[in-house]
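Work Package 3 committed the consortium to producing structural models of liganded targets before the mid-term review. Because experimental data for this complex are still outstanding, the team generated a predictive model from sequence and the ligand definition alone, so that downstream docking and mutagenesis planning could proceed in parallel. The input record is reproduced below exactly as it was submitted to the modelling pipeline, together with the SMILES string for zinc ion.
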Amino acid sequence: MRTYSSCLICKSPSPQGVESHGRLFFHCGHCDYIFQSPETRLSFEQERRRYLEHNNDLRDLRYLKYLEKTWLQVGPLPSGSVVLDYGCGPTKGLEKLLQPRYRVLSYDPIFWPQDLQMEFGKVDVIFCSEVIEHAFFPTRVFDHWNQLLRPGGLITLRTCFHPEMDKMRDWWYASDETHIGFFSQCTFEFIAKKWGWQLNKVHNPYVFATGPLIVH
Ligand SMILES: [Zn+2]
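The resulting structure, written out as tokens with the ligand in place, is given here.
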């Protein structure tokens, strides 16, 4: 069976190959992360086209309800709180849902790229719904979040947790070819430890965490 040089999250050597929907992924036995190798990624234009096909049209009420369902679990915040929708897609759904109650920053590396350096240390909540499974380098994303969050700011993340290896072959979530990284409770426990987060609630497909209390 093929192996990859090292895990893209925890750097452990030789993650083992596992197939799903005809694509080759690698599974880390240490942190339980499953990923497709970055060398096989789609081109920028192919990715962009695929995302435009995703069902996140604001006219689609189901999409807004879906975002709201995740958001309601964050709970009420003081008005004027800064919320960052990380990977907002083409429609900036959360911004439409929450403004003007909160100050919502919409960021997307493909549709709304912007330099967020001015916001470092100011963000109260990072909201990341159905996005992290698209990231080829999730550690860069988590580094970025730690720069953006104010001390003790919140992280809200939604992504489907992967099943056992013998169920991967036909797992529906991996059939989307832009889904290239899959996590589990074990992976998030590793991430929390490494990035200094406190996990408040983890239940598939949600992760609620508090970011580092001291920002270096
Ligand atoms: Zn790992």
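Reviewers should note the following from the model. The chain has one domain: 56-210. These observations will guide the Year 2 experiments.
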